[in-house]
Amino acid sequence: MTLLERTDDGAVAHLHMNAPDRLNALSDAMLAAFQAEFDSLAGDRAIRAVVISGAGKAFCAGHDLREMTAGRQAEDGGAAYFTDLFGRCARVMMAIRALPQPVIAAPHGIATAAGCQLVATCDMAVAAHGTRFGVNGVNIGLFCSTPMVALSRNIPRKQAFEMLTTGDFIDTDRALELGLVNRAVPEEERLDTAMALARQVAGKLGAAVRIGKRAFYDQIEMPLDQAYAYTGDVMVENMLWRDTEEGISAFLEKRSPDWDQ
Hints:
This protein is an alpha/beta fold and about 260 residues long. The protein folds into two domains: about 5-200, 2-enoyl-CoA Hydratase, Chain A, domain 1 (Alpha-Beta Complex); about 205-250, Lyase 2-enoyl-coa Hydratase, Chain  A, domain 2, CATH 1.10.12. It has eleven helices and eight strands. The protein has helices at about 30-40, 65-70, 80-100, 115-120, 145-150, 155-165, 170-180, 185-200, 205-220, 225-240, 240-250, and strands spanning about 5-10, 10-15, 50-55, 105, 110, 125-130, 130-135, 185. A six-stranded mixed β-sheet has the order 1-2-3-4-6-8, sandwiched between helices. Strand 1 (about 5-10) and strand 2 (about 10-15) form a beta hairpin. Helix 4 runs parallel beside helix 5 and helix 9 runs antiparallel to helix 10. The two termini are about 35 Å apart. The mean pLDDT is about 95.
C-alpha cells in the first residue's frame, strides 16, 4: 500500500493520504512521504497546483499518538524524539508555504490537531459539509502549540484561542465564516470542486502565480510601507516579462495569450 498516493492530472498534482485505518495520521512515514513529494514538486515546472485529500472517514487526525507513546519510552522520556518529530512536522508545513505552486486542501470528516494545522497551512481549502475542525490536544493535556502557528495566522485570534483552550470542534459553516476554508460543498462534490479550483489556478501564467505566492506571504509579515515598496519591485519584475507583455496584448486584442511559461 502506498501511504501517500500522487496522481497528476495535467498541471495539477493530487496527493492522497492513504492510511484510513489510522485516520491518515501524520506518522513518521507520512511526514517523510509528504517531505519527499514537496521536495520533488518544488522543482517541477510542469505542475502548477496541488490538491491534498485523505482516504476513509477522516481527512487527518493529527500526529500518530501510538508512535508518540512509543517515543516516550526512551531514556530521556522522549525529549529527543519529540524535538525531532515536531521539527520534521514544521519543515513539512513550511515546505507547503515555500512551494511555488498553490496548495489546496480538500478536507472531510475531521481535521484535528496537526490535521487542522495542515488545512490552515495550505493556501486554500475546499471542505465537505459536515467536516469538523479542531485543535483538541488540550483535552488530553497537550496544548496544540505548533498547530496554533498556522491556525492563528488564518482566523481571528480570539476564535483561535477559544478553539485551543476549549478543545471544541467547529463545523464547516463556522470554518467558512472564520476564513479557515474557502468553500464548503457536499461531500460528493468536494474533490471535483477542489480539482476544478486547482485547474483554474493552473491555467494562469505559472511564473506570475509563483512570484505572486512568494510575494503574498513575504509582504503580509511586513509593515505597510515596506510591503508596498517590496511588492512594487515585484510588479516591476513581473511587468518586464515577455509573457506579461503578451498577456496584456492578448487581452487588448481579445484573444488567448501565447505564453511560454
